[in-house]
């Protein structure tokens, strides 16, 4: 997959795609349905399959003080889109210039002049242009005028309700990663670089790979059975494990992070990029009276996680 971030200097080979447009936070089943429509049109047009998205997320640009809400950082989103077969990722810088374009200017300057998209697919709730004044119907009208096709996709419904990033965040906040996964079509993953911690896990006999969750919507704090992908390097591969997400109340006030113990793993992961998939919530964060009590609970957590992951 090629990532295109510059709309000023476009290689002709990166133009002419059939592209889905949106933020695609989480790349959930609703997003995948939109992308699948773009995929079908790409095959009909003999065109590459593209996705247009925006970094930073427009909400982060307009309200930087907002509470973390993202399900995925940009790298995790790109990895997921590549896995489902996207060939061109148009990751447009969302800045004062892009946000000031009127809806018709966005259609003309970005969709037509820069990227020369042949077909675009959007959700029913898609808004674009300055002040979010442009609607899905507006884009379809612009397509008729300017010469690109437009398909408006319907929302995806499940027994638990509408598939949306909002409902996925709610499931994660309530410690229901299975319900989140049902809407996502994949395990909810926290992805990033392994950073150095305070080495407490190693001292307890449970060395962990630590990652920041800054900027991401925090799942319910506690311990999870997880599936881990080490994305590159000598230790690249898939592993089972247990992860603790939270502020570590046993050791005072701390910044929330994700600490993952990989079962039966020996090696150095510092600096590696890993992806931690939340499979099942085991228990909330607890403060124990003694270190021995904490270790006993960690033993039980890992035994339970191993049992769960054998059947996943």
TrEMBL record:
It catalyses: riboflavin + ATP = FMN + ADP + H(+); FMN + ATP + H(+) = FAD + diphosphate. Residues 183-310 form the Riboflavin kinase domain. The keyword Secreted does not apply. SUPFAM superfamilies: Nucleotidylyl transferase (SSF52374), Riboflavin kinase-like (SSF82114). The keyword Transferase applies. Keywords: ATP-binding, FAD, Flavoprotein, FMN, Kinase, Multifunctional enzyme, Nucleotide-binding, Nucleotidyltransferase, Transferase. Pfam families: FAD_syn, Flavokinase. Pathway: Cofactor biosynthesis; FAD biosynthesis; FAD from FMN: step 1/1; Cofactor biosynthesis; FMN biosynthesis; FMN from riboflavin (ATP route): step 1/1. Belongs to the ribF family. This is Riboflavin biosynthesis protein.
